[in-house]
Amino acid sequence: MEKVEKIIENQKKINSFMEKYEDYTRKLLGCSIDDITKYINAREELISKIDISNKEILSLCEENSFEYMAYKNLCGRGELPDTYTEIFDLRQNFNSILARVKSMEPEIIERITIEREKVLKKIKENNSGQNAKAAKFFNAGISSGQNMFFPENKKQI
Asked: What is the per-residue pLDDT for 63?
């Protein structure tokens, strides 16, 4: 019975972490560009915590035991003794949160791609034209026929 209580406790932690993960995922869809890294890093921290709790649960479960079957949702709820149904229900809750998060992931990837393209476009615009310092430096070397990286007076060692 103590094993079941530890599994339930850890699965509740995992579900709490997953709810936070889902919240950060939702925030990624509408946050400012500057906050994207912050939310991605926060999600990575939560994944580490989830992994630790998951390993602890698996260390408490013997393969093909009722605990394991309930935790992995490898059977129907009605096939389990009442002692293990809470594990099953908590894991089902985890699976539903996970499904919602997975459905948001493609939108996040698309948003990050769009933002990256906008930034690259701004960089190209800033580095082209007559006002761009990098372009002036580059063009000065080309027009004089010199290699700007190795000036003539510095070639000898």
From this structure: 85
Kindly list the domain boundaries of the chain, sorted by start residue: 2-104
How far is it, in rounded angstroms, from Cα 57 to Cα 8?
9
List, for residues 19-78, the tens digit of each pLDDT value.
999 999 999 999 998 899 999 999 999 999 999 999 999 999 988 899 999 999 999 999
Q: How far apart are CA 128 and CA 109, in angstroms?
A: 29
Average pLDDT, the chain: 86
The CA distance from 42 to 12, in Å, is 19
CATH of 2-104, one of 3.40.50, 2.60.120, 1.20.58, 1.10.3470: 1.20.58
Q: Looking at the chain, list the stretches that DSSP marks H as alpha helix, in order from N- to C-terminal side.
A: 2-28, 33-60, 66-71, 82-126, 133-144
67: number of Cβ within 10 Å: 21
